[in-house]
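Backbone description:
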Amino acid sequence: MDTYAGHIEYKLTGQESKSEGFTATLITPDGTSYRLYRKGAFELNDSFFKQFDQQEVEVNGELEDTGFICVSSVQPSEGELIQVPELPPLPTELVFPPKEEPEKAKPAPTLKKKKKSKHNTKRKKK
């Protein structure tokens, strides 16, 4: 685990697109930016980081090849170390059981089409 210093910006990104939402970014003193997220949480609209908006902080976490940091704790320059809260497990009604093998269904009967008659049954107008 590494420590990264800088300030956090919590701002709206991806305006007018399907991925529009608030994201947290750590901007280091040399101008490098890293997107922040918590393990088990989607990075868009994660309000946990909102409390650190525009604050100088030290972030502890794992830097990924994608430029994202999976944050485990945040320490504001004028405050105590804050551990990233663990997210509650999914409610059991949202957890899907393993898929069972369906019983083999009987093949559906095939329907035969009626052949069209070569004779026109409509009367011709005179």
In short: The beta strands are 2-13, 21-27, 33-38, 56-63, 68-76, 82-83. The first strand starts at residue 2 and ends at 13.
